[in-house]
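FAQ: What does a ligand-bound record look like?

Like this one, built around glutamine:
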Amino acid sequence: MNRPAQKKNNKKYIFITGGVASSLGKGLAAASLACLLERRGIKINMLKMDPYINVDPGTMSPTQHGEVFVTDDGAETDLDLGHYERFTSLTLSRKSNFTTGQVYLQVIENEREGKYLGKTVQVVPHITNEIKRRILVAAKDCDLLLGEIGGTVGDIESQPYLEAIRQFAADVGPENVLYIHLVLLPYINAAGELKTKPAQHSVKELRSLGLFPDVIICRSDREIEPSIYEKLSLFCNLPKENVFSSIDMDSIYKVPMNFHRQGIDEKITELLGMWTGRPDIRDVEKVVHNIEHPLREVRIGIVGKYTELIESYKSLDEALHHGAIFNQLKLVPLYIDAEELEKDTDSPSWDALRSAQGILVPGGFGERGTEGKIKAIEYARTKKVPYFGICLGMQLAMIEFARHVANVKDANSEEFSSKGSHVIHYMAGQSEGGSKGGTMRLGAYACHLEKGTLAHKVYGSNEISERHRHRLEVNNKFIEELKNKGMVISGVNKEMNLVEVIELEDHPHFIGCQYHPEFKSKPFSPHPLFSTFISASDKNQVQK
Ligand code: GLN
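The answer part, i.e. the structure of the complex:
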């Protein structure tokens, strides 16, 4: 039989842009699509392109920009990468995120090295070429790359990115590229309806740049009438079957199911000419089921600096939810301002702490609030309330124990004072300087767990790898003293001879780790430190 030559299996690209307003949850939408496409058996990868000028997102204020997410290879990246990892099986790297600052820096360095042979260096083609080069690098080992452009269409900063992805379709063939535009449909009370005009204008803006969205996803706070799809289809020049909705959900983990029900994943594969079977989404369904049918509540006290609690613990918050979902419980997080605990014990903060079934002190920088955190840890230790200390939360647990059990009255961290017994100290080469980038221990490090310990039981493994982001370490000089009083060193980094996990002998569940396990927790495979902490807290029934 005379068959046409088999077409080469081309690599495919999806570019996701946002319109009308920022904070639409583009990262979440991209991650949810990736979740579904991966479950169709497609080898995916993800990329976040950030139009801001900062070269190093790690140095951006978490209160302004949300959390700094850390990858295995030690990159301090945008928090959207956290969504990407949580919704997929991907382990991302520093190649998964870049900023305008990095792009310009590279181009300027190239120019300084004479790589442009004296030509005039311009946004087009030099900046756009560098953006396209980075997209190709990110797509190296996958069959489908989902690339999200940060910011909103119409921003001055986004323009080179939009131009780059426009050119990209010409480079790799338009049949291999799909443009998805996420827009907001605002509800106008007086008219009693959702409005499409801002979305139309955003698409118009895209089209003036030569980009024609293949798929539109509408964000709204309520159900969208079929007539709205028709209107958008007409004005934005695409079939109404290519317009979808993403209405507000009470849990972000319901978004993939909501997309799947509308057939977005099927439409995308159809448009890209990728033929796959139906996706296996049983794990996604199970998560939704557990969210919708909690057996009871579990109250977790999270003790931190007030401003940090609100903005900068995205992964932590999610990881706690994963633990609760796994145990089919509803998480009730109690955000407790550490400084309030330093005052009298009649305060509402103390009431909240006493009503918590489990207490967690997360990572943090700086001295403010630390004495309050130490009070919370002392309470958890003496009242046998399940305790989970992460990074700073582990260091403070060590200080609390040294002060109150091992009689090292002036125990402290070198981060807070040059005086006293430094149970926690700077490692050689890791200097002072707040959370500014540079000298931190960053990224994945190996940890050996001692058999017979809680940590070993929790992980069910001797060797683990976890992500770090800190400067100070446990001072080995004090270890024997603390061990003699009932502290257990259950995890160590053998190569560097550093303490990684501590626990207490005489306590139902008291564990602290120097690393950040929250970065590796996913709803479909919760981190064992979170699922076991939640389960221990559930068993601790306290008076509410
Ligand atoms: N400030 C502490 C350190 O630098 C803890 C950091 C953290 O909790 N991430 O070691």
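Follow-up question: can I read anything off the structure? Yes, for example: The chain has a mean pLDDT of 91.
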